[in-house]
Amino acid sequence: MSSSSSSTTTCSKSLGKWFPTATVRKTIALNPSETCSLLLFYHYVRPSMSQARADHLKTFLDKMTAETKVGGRLRCAQEGLNCTISGTYSQVRDFSDRLKTWGTSSLPDGVKGPFEEGVDFKYVDSLPPSRAFKDVKVLPVTELVFYGVSESSAPLSNGGVHLQPKEYHEKMEEDNTVIIDVRNTYEADIGKFNGQEKVGGAEYIDPKMRKSTDFKSWLSKEETKEQIKGKQILMYCTGGVRCERASALLKNEMGDNVKDVYQLQGGIEKYIQEFPDGGHWRGKNFVFDKREAFGVKSMEGVGGVVEGKKKKKKKKKTDEEEEEILGNCCVCAQKWDRYIGKKKCYTCGVPVLMCDKCLTLKPDKTPGRKLEVRCTLCKEEGVEVPAADLELTANGIGAVKKDSSQNAAAPSVLKWGGGQAKEKKEKRKMKRKMCKFGAECTRTDCWFSHDTCKVTTGNSQKKFNVDS
Ligand SMILES: [Zn+2]
Ligand SMILES: [Zn+2]
Ligand SMILES: [Zn+2]
């Protein structure tokens, strides 16, 4: 309690309509000689906190992240926390130690604070200093993962059974089993659990999502129900948080029509830590931090610049060491699994893979070539209406065409501030609709007008994803 005598200023700056009360603060970069550690965790507080208590938690985090000098992304809701924290080895541990103490001061003996016990803190150490976030963002949200679902309609207590990686691994080899990827297709494009299929294990299912809210519509389809009927269900995501609500939703929807439902405790992140040879994992694990994505052989991730050819040759890997590349460049279809250049699908806005050669040719800015820059889903579904010509519906969950052209439109889109934003901005100015939630709106992808604050940070929206 002695060290933090100097007062720390936490500037609360508006992040525009999506996060009017978010806190953003630059962090001090790590020294080149220091290594970076990441702390990933989520925790649902049950029962949910009151709004006043959640506000208190946010204020505590504003101050505490400044004092511990960590960077990161913190989603803060009445239902709990979902965070990715970066800093030195001791900074991130200082953060978790302090978080454990929150809300414990006036508790009776034996009663624990909301984060004091049972939080699965995952640490990733010895990363290059460039893997640290350059700022910290504390974002008040209504759901830790935006499914558009309330606790009462899909209680977490009804979710799938948590299995540790080793138990989950064994389940993957059982028959009459399906394994549902609870991530977006652009994540699954570069890595997934399908190695078990070779040994007659669980059948891999991609719900073909552009964002988490698509899960509900996938689940409600008759063909989905037919596909998973009578099966043992395994679900997984990057760090586990997305499966919590998704597994409860699935159990609600399917009831006795499926066998037991399991979710991977700690997600892919933890599984890869426990299976250094990758187990049944293939390819790279897409992550929402500066590692970008990592494979079994390179836990530090691939984030940053693309290695030059010369450099690659120097440390030539043996075939055995060479990691499997599952993705393809969206333009030329060569093997490629790097999300660089911030390229987005022309028709739905999700990130697309574009190889270094194609990047230099700028197909996304070349008239007549723009449709080449589409994600795997849009190509598969024959979607041709530009994302900029779509209007979001149902407060950001769905999308519809603005005109009556015959071309197919994406059923849902990801909205970003950057990229093709200029044109969209103009269009939006023309037809401003007020969001019914106004400044209270916490939707991460709401693009209705929230008059009380203006959009201040163009393309920072994509950085808000925290999945741990
Ligand atoms: Zn290419
Ligand atoms: Zn697309
Ligand atoms: Zn809104």
Which class of secondary structure composition applies to the elements?
Answer: alpha/beta
Second-tier CATH architecture of the domain at 9-141 and 434-468: 2-Layer Sandwich
Rounded to the nearest angstrom, the distance between the terminal CA atoms is 29 Å
Number of strands: 17
What summary fits the major beta sheet?
A: 6 strands, mixed
Contiguous runs where pLDDT drops below 50 for at least 5 residues: 1-11, 309-321, 417-421, 452-465
Radius of gyration based on Cα positions = 22 Å
- What would the average pLDDT be, to the nearest integer? 86
> Strand order of the main beta sheet, please?
1-6-3-4-2-5
List each distinct ligand once.
Answer: zinc ion
Strand content: 15-25%
Number of helices: 12
Helix content: 10-25%
CATH class of the domain at 9-141 and 434-468: Alpha Beta
Protein name: Rhodanese domain-containing protein
Domain Rhodanese: 173-280
Organism: Triparma strigata
InterPro entries: Rhodanese-like_dom, Rhodanese-like_dom_sf, Rhodanese_C, TrhO, TRHO_N
Q: Helices and strands in order, then pairings?
A:
Blueprint lengths: L22 E4 L9 E9 L6 H18 L2 E7 L2 E8 L1 H13 L20 E6 L7 E6 L20 E3 L1 H8 L4 E5 L3 H4 L2 E3 L9 E3 L8 H6 L2 H7 L3 E5 L4 H14 L6 E4 L2 H8 L6 E3 L1 E2 L6 E2 L14 H6 L41 H6 L14 H6 L8 E4 L4 E4 L19 H10 L38
Helix pairs in contact: 1-2
Bound molecules: zinc ion (3 copies).
Q: TL;DR?
A:
With 468 residues, the chain is an alpha/beta fold. 23% of the residues lie in helices and 17% in strands.
Features:
Oxidized Rhodanese, domain 1; binds zinc ion; alpha/beta; 12 helices; 468 residues; five-stranded parallel beta sheet; globular
